[in-house]
Amino acid sequence: MNAATDDGRWLGLPYHPNAAAAIIFIATFGLATLGHIGHIFWLRAWHFIPLLIGCVSKYNDNPRPLLALADPLEVETFGYYVRFWLSRSPTNFKAYVLYDLLVLPAPIFLAATIYMSLSRIIMALAAQDLSPVRPSRMSKWFIFGDVVCFLVQLAGVGMGVTTSRNIQEIGAKVVVVGLVFQILVFALFISAAVTLYRRYKSQVGPDSGPLEWRRYLISLLTASGCIVIRNIVRGVEHAQGLDGSIASHEVFVYLFDALLMLCVVVLMLALHPGYLQRSSQRKSAMDFERNSIITTETSLMRETTLKGHRPRPCSYPRDRD
Description:
Elements: H1 19-42, H2 72-88, H3 93-103, H4 106-124, H5 135-159, H6 165-204, H7 213-240, H8 251-270, H9 273-308
Helix pairs in contact: 1-2, 1-8, 2-3, 2-4, 4-5, 4-6, 4-7, 4-9, 5-6, 6-7, 7-8
Transmembrane segments: 15-34, 96-118, 141-162, 174-196, 216-233, 253-276
Protein name: RTA1 domain protein
Subcellular location: Membrane
């Protein structure tokens, strides 16, 4: 089924959206949002704020309520709410465009948090010299690439608002360009993370040490891999169009988009980089306290030693009368 006929009339999706699946992901992304909000304040992980800052969007369709979106996780949550709405009205073109507008660029915000998390991990491990890119520059460079990807994808989705078949095809190509560029940015990021992993592993040896740094780096690499796979599938989907094998089967939406993004969110929640930062701070405090005690004991021992070997004053015999 085509996205629109020659006369510009929207025909709808080539399948009837599953309402139950949409409700499941509304609930799971909503719970994940609450979990990340709690972790931000508990761990003081302010670099996770990009997960909670997104675009504020409003939409009204006669009796439909306005949707106010506050963060990428809520973008995902409300995106699948719109999909649930689409299951009730499969031929609603506005609902389809709004869903694509919400869900397609949401991983860009998740990626920004992943970039900043790697910078925090590098500083927590005191591995600035081992990183191929300075932590202060890493976040700026990759986030800049994210912004470019976001604008390109947003422009492509915006072109899909029209019911003109030709303009929709151009918009799909623009979205593919944005997704490909984001894949390249992630490839550079993964390369930097793998380089850091190898260098730090060779320095500290086979043991992970008290900070258990390996699982945090592996979690970031796994989350990055999930986003890359998702972008590849979405790129192929937009390249094929609504007539393609991916867009014509709803299972791909939940298997290679919703499920992968949920894995990223849960993984970043279970292995929150804030735990590593807190462990690093505690270790630094313990090392400082231990060094202070050793320094104090050494000073006392030196003082005692000096007192024990202090020369006694000479006592000259009194002159005899």
